[in-house]
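Practice set, problem 2.
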Amino acid sequence: MRVNNVSIFAGGDAAAGRISQNGRAAGQKQQKAGSINAAFLNGQFDPIEKKREMAKKRADKIISDTYAGERRLDDEVKLRGDRLKQHYKTLADSSREIAKIDEEKEALRKEYGVEKDSKEQKDLEILEKYKRSNRHVVEVPISKEEREYAQKLEAEGLTEYQERALQMDSFKDRHLKNIQDSKGGIIEEAATIRAMGLERLKKFPMLEAQQEAEKVLESASDEIIGMLIDEAKDHIDDKAEEEQEKAEEKKEEEKEEQEKLEEAKEHREEMEALTDPEKAEKVERERRRPQETEVLYADPMTAGMLKMENVKNDIQQEVSDMMLKMKLVAEDLKGLSVDEVL
């Protein structure tokens, strides 16, 4: 019985070893899966969280870029508005300076007693236009006849009043140039600001940016839903695969358990055969029979020889049995002889 126990437990140890290895492998797999799941939960490898974060960043960038563009546009409008104010200021300042010069000229006219409708005053106005056109400071509309008449007046000689008035008029050049430039700047800046305002009325950049950002987020949401569905499918497939592996492991364990039972049964029969010769002989015959049958069907000649050998063995067994019986009978007879002598 001690041998029987050793044999059974030896088989059990082997199976237990395999089960232990399977358990360790499963534990390592579970530990690895747990580490991966923890990493996913921490956001290190979570593709869904990454997709959501990227979509949010892209939407925020659309809004921020549009807002930055609007800010630049506002800054541009403000800059042009400041320039427009400066042009108006220059225009006003230069106009005041010219008005001062005109007042001085008017005082000079009164000082010399020249009438506004006099020929000397009319000739002075033509001479002023002629001199300004020659200085090329500002564009002065003057006809050919006026130019020729001014040249004739210069050739004949100017009055003292006309010379002093022309000198005072030359002080207007700088202010006239400023007024001319300011008027051009006012037209340009006002037109640009107006065009920018009309363009803004046609479009709503911030609203369009918000709508585009919402589209990005919606698209990302659709992709995330798809990823969640795929992940759920993968989880179901992994679960099914895990259940299949467990079923195969259980089947393997049942097979190993059945093998252990068969080994124990054979060992028990062997131990019983050691205490019962007849049963041992029967077990031996049962053990040889499948091998003989296989050989029998394998080769006719070999099968015939094996059959003769079996017959021979059977005869020898019968002879042994008869001799054993005869021996027992002889012993019994001896016992009777002794009893009769006594």
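Problem 2, part (b): a different protein.
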Amino acid sequence: MKNKISIILVFIITLLVLVGGLFIMQQRLDTQSVRLLNEKLNSKETIFRSNSEKKELNKKFLTKNELVEVVHSMENKKNMRPHEPVKGQLSMNQAITKGKEWVQKLFSTKIQTYKKVSANLCTNDSAGINKIPGILYGFWEVKFEKKNLMVKMSIHSVTGQLLGIEVYSYNKQLKSSYKNPEKILAGYVRSLNMKSNTCIYTEGGLYEKIADGDLYAVLEIGSVQISTKSRKYDFDGVMALHLVPEI
């Protein structure tokens, strides 16, 4: 009798060990399957994010509607707020590099050193004209300073396009560039990947109408004296180049 009970107990214990072993093995297999599935999903998500960011970073120009929306938004200074760059936007160093490139491009001169350099990333609320991604409302405010020169500019945070620039200078190199302001203005419109169809001369500067758009590119250069034969520009060391909505 005792032998039968021992055999039954050994059988039950063996069965329990086998069932327990199978259960533990199944749990391990399930855990491994979940881990492999998560790794696969994460890999796909990473690839998707990478492709999405690459597409956004490769955006070189704002469309006409995007540019109009951004300019209208930037006019509301009360709602302007700083923030850190997000994926798809230029870093501070990239924005500063872009700023130096714009100075060289506009004035055909390279300024090697600056006494002070600053850059702040800001954004404004949507103007509600067109629906564009929120990331496109950001812009870098970049400032360069040295003796007898201060340059302030707004650079789009994704495309790196110049949205506006102010120059305060008695630097002869920069002032020599003002001799052909029409060329500066036309080059600026082209840098936006736009065309212009009208150029208006006023006492305060030049207004260039962007073709098929609701914007003017404006170059303010002191004053302009207009006669029937020619135009004479009065430079006072101050220049502003920016975009304004059509009135």
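Answer key, part (b): Helices lie at 2-57, 64-74, 92-107, 172-177, 181-191. The chain has a mean pLDDT of 77.
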